[in-house]
C-alpha cells in the first residue's frame, strides 16, 4: 500500500536469513524512505490532497499492493487498516467492512466515488474483483458531509483501472488457494490508441468448502464471475469516460449448529444462489480555468442489484421454505464546481441525487403440524418501495497561515420514502415519511514542522433508515421482522485528534477518536402495543445509542540495514451500546487488534526484484450481548494470533511477470475473528501468477 504498505507477497524464511550476505542488495532509497504520507488522495475532500495535509483519518492501498495480492476478495485487502474489521455474515466470498465497530450498513461503499447501495441489514458486500481496482482509499470517521447517508462511520472508495500507455496491452492472472481448493482467473486487454483509452477485463472464481484446523466447514463454498469495461477520451480541456461493471455470485451461507437448534428451531438452512450487480457509469470533467471557476465535473450512473435468498427453517410447530427475490434499481447523479482560490480560500460546491427502488417478492411455503400456531399453505408477498434523496454540499479549505489550515463543510439533505405497493394487509401504500437534515464537519491541520503535522476534526454523521427497516421488513430465522415507517434517522458526532510524522527513516500516523451515536435502529420482539400481525414477530425500532473511543496507529521504521522495515498497524478500541433498560461494553469489538511484522524488498543475485513480509495478525477476546435474546451472551470469542509469511518475485526482461505466494496461519491456529461467523482457514498457501505484455 502507500500509507499502509503491507506487501502481501514475500520471500521464504531462507531468503530473510541471507539478507546480511553480499549477494543481497537492499531496496532503493525511494522504498526505504517511507514516503507513504506523500500519497495524493481525493476521497477525504473531493479534491486532490496529500494525506499529510488532510484533517481526516486516511489509508491508501495502492497499485503495487493490489498487484501483489493473492486474495480473491477485496475485504481481505482492507483487513489490516487500523480501525477496520471484516465481517462475513456467514457468506463466504461476500465480505463486508466495519469501521470503528459500527455495523457495515453505516459505511459508504463507493466505486469511482459513486455509491453502491444496499438496503439489507448486513450491509453492502464488496462485489468487485481485486484485479479490476487500481487503488483503494479508506476514510475512517464520518463522511456524511461529502458522501451522504451511510457514511456515518467512514467511506471506502474503490478506484478502478483505466486505460494503458500502448495501443495494445494485456494481463493474464491465475491463482490457487489450498484452504478452499479454489481457483481464481483474470484476463484483461487494454491500451491507449491515439488518445482513446480502453480496458476490457473479466474474472472467475470457484471455491469449495473452507478447510479449518477443526475440519471442513460445510456450506462455505462459493463462486463468482465479473466483467469490466472502460472507455475514455480527452477533448482539449474536457474529458468523457464510461464504465460498465457486471458481478455475479452464488454462495452457501454457514449457520452455527447451536443456532440451528436454538429453540424453537430444530433445523435451519440458508443459501444465496444469486447476488448480482450490473452498473453503467458516465463521467465528465472540464478544466474551465476562467476567472472564477477552476473546474466542473459531473457523473451519473444506473445500477441494478438482483438477489435471490433462500431460507429453510424447521421449528417444533412447523417447517417453512422462504424464497426471497428482489431487485434494487439505483439512479444517481452528481455535479461539482471547484472555484478559483479566493485569497486563501478554496471552495467547492455540489449537488447530488440518489433514488433507490426496491421490488421484492417472497414465496413463503409453510407446512404446519400445529394449526393453531401456523397455517399450512403458500403465501406470496410483494412489496415495492423507494427512497429519493437530494443533497447540496459546500466545503471551504482555508489556509489561515503558512502552518495552519482549516477545512469546513456543510451538507443539506432532503429525503422522501414511499411504499408504492404491498400485498400485506397490515401495511398501506403511500408516503413513509420525509426528512431534511443539515450536517457539518470542521477540521484543522497545524504544521508543527515540515515533518510533523497535528490535526483535529469534528464531523456529524447521518443514516436514513433503509427500505428494509421502513417498508419491506425481513425474516430473521423463523420470525418476521416488521418494518416501521416512523423510524428516525441514526445520527452521530465524531471527534478526532491526530499526529502525522514523516522522516527519511520513520513514518508515524496515529489517531485518537471519540464517537457518540444516537437513535440506533434494531429489531426487538413485538409487544401487544406494537400490534404486529404475528404473535412471534419482531419489529424495527429506535432502541438506543452508543459511544466508542480508541486509538489507531500505523508506524514503519526504515532505518535498519539491508532494507529491513519493521512495522505495526494497531487499534485499541472500546465501544458501549445503551438500550432503554440495558447497556453493555460487549459489542463484538476486541480491545486490541492489528498486525505487526518485518518487510524487505531488494534483489538476490540475478533476480532484480523480490520482497518479503513476515507478520503476526491477531486480536484480543470479544463478546456480544444484546437485550431480549435467548442467550445472555450471543458470542464469546477467544483472542488469537496467527503467524504468516508472504513471498514474491518479479522477473522477465522488463519485470513483466510476477509470482506471489502467501503462507497463512503457519501454526495452524484455530480461531474465529470477532466480527465473523466463519472459522479462519487452516495452515494454507495462496498463490498467484501474473503475466503482462
List keywords for this structure.
globular; Maltoporin, Chain A; 5-stranded mixed β-sheet; disordered N terminus; 59% strand; mainly beta; 7 helices; 39 strands; single chain; 693 residues
What does this protein structure show overall?
With 693 residues, the chain is mainly beta. It has a 22-stranded antiparallel barrel. A five-stranded mixed β-sheet has the order 4-9-10-7-8. The longest helix is centred in the N-terminal third of the chain and has 6 residues, at 63-68. The radius of gyration is 25 Å and the shape is globular. The chain starts with 12 loop residues before the first helix and ends with a strand. Mean pLDDT is 88; it is low at 1-34.
The CATH C-level class name: Mainly Beta
Helix/strand structural class: mainly beta
The CATH topology annotation reads as Maltoporin, Chain A
Per DSSP, the total helix count is: 7
The average pLDDT score comes to: 88
- Strand tally, please? 39
Low-confidence stretches: 1-34
Cα end-to-end separation: 24 Å
Mind telling me which CATH architecture this is?
Beta Barrel
Percent of residues in beta strands: over 45%
The tally of structural domains comes to 1
Helix content: under 10%
Computed CA radius of gyration, to the nearest angstrom:
25 Å
